[in-house]
Amino acid sequence: MSGSRRRSRAAPGKVVRAARGRPRPRGDARGPSERASPNVDRPVQGGRAPGPSGDVRVERLRDRGAGVRTTRIFLADDHELVRTSLGAVIHERAEFEIVGEAGCAEGAVERAPASRPDLLVMDVDMPGLCCFDAVRRIRAALPELRSIFLSSACHDLHIEQALSVKAHGFVLKSDSLAVFFDALMSAAAGEHFYSRRVRTRFASGAVSGHGTLIPAVGSTRRESLTVRELQVLLYIARGLAKKEVAKLMQLSVKTVEHHSSSIMRKLDIHDRVELARYAIREGLVEA
Asked: In terms of Cα–Cα distance, which of 62, 33, 67 is closest to 49?
């Protein structure tokens, strides 16, 4: 009809679609884009709303509050990138929780007891205090603490030292994440896990069910050294002065000198330079 507006008629009881610019009918306060959203007014399985953009991490974080038993982990490594990367992948698992970290063994000794971890994950080759000494000190405050060592190299001495402090695991940094998590799961269950390359360094029957070392038949000059002498040797090979070694090991300088003399006698080495060369040659320290 010319010059006039067309009026919409509707049968009684029916809602007429609102024309453009007019208010929407009662009972639906959403716009078209909201009605199209897949996450609005949808029933959610299990009664939980999905995380933003389907974020699985949010779901796993919620699981931690749903009665899942978490293993509390303290992470010690002198490389920030390693700590950050491992912390991120551990955080994705609902059964684990990072409760603290440190960039050196001394920092772990200072901070770990207050964090009350169940499991300590520690790098083997860090400057300063020997990681094995650090584990002994932390365990004095936390007797039930379990430990896993990470290393970039596979040296017999490090493995022996790990066994001497009753470590629950030893993993190489070249191993896969799957192997790393196998070690975490084993340690959390109170079991021992040494990655495949590490196990190849054991003599037949070298590890008992309790994870202690059973020396193989035959000995070398290095095997004649005591645990303390090996620790002193590592520090000296790193170029530390006897006073520094004494401070780190909480011993007197005279005791360190006694250990140093005993080491040289047993190895038939007569100066610090040769001791350092020996340690590098045997893979005890990096060049």
From this structure: 62
**For the segment 126-175, what is each residue's pLDDT rounded down to a tens digit?**
988 989 999 999 999 999 999 999 998 887 778 888 888 999 999 999 99
Under 8 Å between Cβ of 116 and 138: no
Strand partners for 73: 98, 119
Helix (H, G, I), strand (E, B) or coil at 211: coil
Encoded tokens for 248: 């780190």
Provide Rg for the chain, Cα atoms: 31
Q: What is the pLDDT of residues 83-109, one digit of tens each?
A: 999 999 999 999 999 999 999 999 999
Q: DSSP state, 52? A: G
Q: What is the C-alpha separation between 255 and 111, in angstroms, rounded?
A: 28
Asked whether 143 and 167 are in contact (CB, 8 A), the reply is no
- What pLDDT does residue 18 have? 45
User: Which of 180, 262, 255, 253 lies closest to 221, judged by CA?
Assistant: 262
pLDDT on residue 287: 62
Whether 14 maps to a domain, the answer reads: no
- 160: containing domain: 56-199
CATH of the domain at 185: 3.40.50.2300
| Cβ-count burial 98-109 (b if 16+ within 10 Å, e if not) | bbbbbbbbbbbb
State how far the alpha carbon of 11 is from the alpha carbons of 16, 18, 24, 41, 159, in Å.
9, 15, 19, 30, 87
User: Which of the 8 DSSP states describes residue 260?
Assistant: H
pLDDT of residue 153: 84
For 100, the 3-state DSSP assignment is strand
Which of 162, 184, 199 terminates a domain? The answer is 199
Surface-to-core class of residue 127, CB atoms within 10 Å of its CB (0-12 exposed, 13-18 middle, 19+ buried): exposed
